[in-house]
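Bit of a strange request maybe. I'm writing a small parser for structure token strings and I need a real example to test against, not something I typed by hand. Could someone generate the tokens for this chain?
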Amino acid sequence: MNYSKWVACWGNATSITDRKEAVYAKDITLRYPVFMPFSGSKLRLRFSNLTGTEPVTLSKVFLRNRNANLSPLTSHLSPLTIAPGEEVESEEIEMDVEAGSTLEVSIYLEGYTQMNAGTLITGPLSKGQYAYGDFAEAEELPLDLSRKTNWFYFLNTIDILTEEKNHALVCYGDSITAQSWPDYLALRAWSEGFHNVAIIRRAVSGTRILRQYDCITYQAYGLKGATRWPIETNVSGVSSIIIQHGINDIIHPVGVDVNPFRPWSDMPTVEELEKGIENIYIKGNVPPLGGDGGASIYSGTLLPIYGWRTYNEMREKMRMEFNEWLRTSPLFDGCVDFDKAVRDSEHVERFAPGFDSGDHLHPSESAYEAMAEAVPAELLA
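Reply from user aminoacidic:
Good idea to test on real output. This should exercise your parser:
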């Protein structure tokens, strides 16, 4: 097999973690399982302390490649220290990986470690664990000392040296994308025989295109688009990017009399949202992407919000106008019409029956599956 091309096979965004009472950990093991969409001979891992304010030391990083056809393959990485605001890439790791196998990445944090850099994600392929103590090399974490977690700390991207035909599809957005549809898209690609594509998630709950919060109450809502985009589109082997972003710009402002951190001055016009997409995501700060012509960029329409606590006719009008622009603008190579996939055909401002999670903003699991089905097969191929 000719393995000659580095391609990202797993990826996450890195943002500011939720500001709870405890922001440090000590003597703890993190373990993250990663589905490997294609085969390869080497790995390299990117770790991020992008939003940290102190150095972070990963005392141990241990890889276990679980493959039903082989005994587990394991590898140690050298200890890594990541400066605040920085990302580091590991040395290249010789490891034969077979498509369809699971790579477990275990990180042991020996000393007091600031847990500022991480992102909350969910989905059938996004199920981490942590354990008290050093169990980085243990085949299984002890049941009485471990718990599940959907917070993914420090681990940002995994690249694999693989075949030339393989490529990465980036799903970029906010909490809608931080939740399940990218995982369902990965499962769909695998089940339909698209074994040459990796689904890379770059999503942060609460994030906006034009603005960000600098208070600890909402810091976990992440960095604004101009900061995120050039960092999160740094993806090996990327062929296409789907942008599903902007609903938080519309629904967050309520006025300082209601919330001191959400002034009406934060409310953009539809034109400002369009210019934000054009100048930040299409024209501005874009690193070299894809092949000679760069990566294709697809828009993703915004989902229904009827019944959400800040819903009103003005916000709905903005969403509808912005969606029409996302569907028709020649700036994009195409549009993934997520809105059409999950809305009620008779009451288009609402989710279809069974597709509302209950908060009237986030879809149900079946709706996330419908979103994955809405992605054109050409993006997977």
